[in-house]
Amino acid sequence: MKLRSFAAAVFAGAALSAATVTDETPRHSPQPGVYRIMFTGNSITMHGFNEGTIRDLGWDRQCGMAASKLENDHVHLFAARVAETRPGERIEICYNSSNACKTAEGRAEADRKTAALLPDLVILQAGEGAGSLSADEFEKWRAGYRTMLESCLALKPTPRVIAVGVWSPTGSGQAEYAPGSGEAKVEEAQREVCTELGVPFVSIARYAQNPACSGTGSSGGVKWHPNDAGMKGYADALFDAYRKTPGKPAIFTFDNPEALKGWSHTPELATELRPGFVRLLGRGGDAKIYRAITLPAGEYRVSGCGRGSNLTVALSRGWETPFFLLQLSNGNLEKWRSDSRPLKLEKEEKLMLSVFSSSADSKTNIAELKSVILTPESASTDEAGLPTPEVLGSRRPSPAVVRGFTLQNRDGLEEARNEWNANVVRKWIPAPDLTADAVFKQRMTEIGEYLAEARKHRLKVILAVDAAAFSGNSKADVSHNAFWSDPGLADRAAALWKRIAAALTPYRDVIYAYDLCNEPLDWDQMPFPPKEWRPTAIAATRAIRSVDPDTWIMYEPGPGGLHDGFQGLKPLPDEKVIYSVHYYSPHDFTHQGIHNITGTDLKEVQAKTNVRCGWDREKIRKHLQSVRDFEQKYRVPILVGEFSVVRWAPKEDAERYLADLVELFEEFGWSWCYHGLRDYHGWSLLHTETYGDLTPAKEETRRSRIIRAGLRKNLE
Q1: How do 337-345 and 298-308 pair as beta strands?
Q2: Which residues belong to the signal peptide in this entry (predicted)?
């Protein structure tokens, strides 16, 4: 049954009275002392009754279906809690039907009604049943869902909007819907759309899959719905999201003739408003549109949607160099690219918001922009399922701290243990064509032999793969957006890691951690990690947990071998995750003279040699502060998966650099792996410091003694 037209309930303190708002209700103006909440949903939100529902369903009341009474459905529980936070204000509840929004005509009618009421807050509940649609119909549903959200965000004044996931009582007791299920597919689409638009998304899967939260009623149709316990969980999840949205997002869309009002542009840029977007034609490095904005102190999610080349959103303090960049380039004008990045301000600031469409020569750069949205961070982050710092702090791998090498050849395992006192090694599973059955079987045989040898020498092993392992194509370019934006990426990563974890079951006592992806990198999103990496890692983690609940996961935020991804990072929704950083900064020192930079985060070869370091221990400490802050905030284990300096770097600088790093890692209590043992000769501790000399040193180098002294701590 569809919701009746805009029935409205009013909270005044704890009192509740009912009123009716008809289709002919004139457009409201914002009223002081009134806070209006619009609930757009289906029978979970409100269901009426008549002789037919009493006879066929045993349903004889008007409220969210399966609630024992109106006051116990999630709408009224949520509204009552909101009322407690807004003393002196009257809370009005209005209803709209998400079922009516399945067609263009229905959406238009729903939009008209929403616009007439000017809600302060919109709760959108939709998507039940969409997971069973055909591919074409699902894309139509997804487009309609996006349109519903965009219509709410286009209202002036703009209301807060919170989107809620689907209700599907599977009885599994799990906090998330099973990967690959229709429900998971729907929520993934909802999350993606919400992220693009800067709308907070709330999953209620943990309540839907709890058997205690449904099953009340005399018919199957009623029993499917959330009972009083389920309604309470529903309201709790919504209120948690509401509580964490202190302000409204700053939304800039370019879909109407007035879209550029308030924006200026430099002489190097020309603008053309097109249906739904603005075209930016730039010549020169300062080609941009810009405007002043004021943001209160807090954490934000800056998101945007665009396409073309050299399209960058920037924030600066006046005309200073931008301190924040968001890349929206995708290299073509065919597909839109959406992206988002965190922003943290310690105090209220007046900032310059700019969008560049720049070119380095006299040619015209063409880029197109749909939107830029700045949303309070708590309004755009789904915290459901994240373990607390208290829980994370109580979990540690065994041993809690390890020290060792990256080591690819199993012939070096005995040396690593007996000559160096390492207790861990980090090994890559060769990636090319790993998805092919014959290749996978051969690789697992080889890895099994490696793990058996490691067990013999009492070594733990970290197993890592490169991103190419997720492609099935050994020649895939995994460092650009075409790879990371592939919608099948997360599913392939999950399937591969599940298969690896299952195949290596006999060796779980040896495996220290599964390193989900070595140095995830997308040059099109630099200096940030690929935004697709976190959801891909979560999918892979859940897949591993379906066959291996105990082995630790290792997560490198990236990008590449950098650690910028720790800025604003939140833990993965798993209690057994080691967070990993690689450290080679400054690169012109550590990588000097290395000419093969394929797959690295280096833009150009560091051809110059005899480059001094210029960094002391305190500068390194400051540079690693974002990792340290994350570790201390969430109380998680940190492992430095790689660090090194080429052997021909200036001798005293290289020795001091390695000593500073080891001492800092020990001070922080971090695990570490030197890169690498019996690897590329440039990283070798056993060769001389002479560039081009491939003969081993006759006497032990001081670099070797520094690492050996650090590894000796494994004996303490």
Answers
A1: antiparallel
A2: 1-17
One domain for residues 63 and 197: yes
- Angle, helices 135-153 vs 104-117, to 10°: value is 20
Q: Which residue, 380, 408, 434, sits at the end of a domain?
A: 380
Estimate the crossing angle of helix 182-197 against helix 135-153, to 10 degrees. Answer: 30
CATH of the domain at 70: 3.40.50.1110
Q: How far is CA 703 from the centre of its chain?
A: 38
Domain that holds residue 45: 7-243
Distance CA 685, CA 679 (A): 10
Tell me how far CA of residue 91 lies from CA of 76, 228, 479, 683, in angstroms.
Answer: 10, 22, 50, 66
Give one DSSP letter per residue of 573-616, joined into a string: S-SSEEEEEEE--SHHHHTTT----TTSS-SS-----S------
For residues 462 and 673, the answer to whether their CB atoms sit within 8 Å is yes
Q: Are strands 403-406 and 201-202 parallel, antiparallel or unpaired?
A: unpaired
* Residue 155: φ, ψ to 5°: -65, 145
Q: Where are the beta strands (DSSP E) in 420-547?
A: 424-428, 460-464, 511-515
Residue owning tokens 């569809």: 2
Give pLDDT tens digits for 147-192. Answer: 889 888 887 777 889 999 999 998 888 888 998 899 999 999 999 8
Please give the DSSP secondary-structure letter assigned to residue 687: B
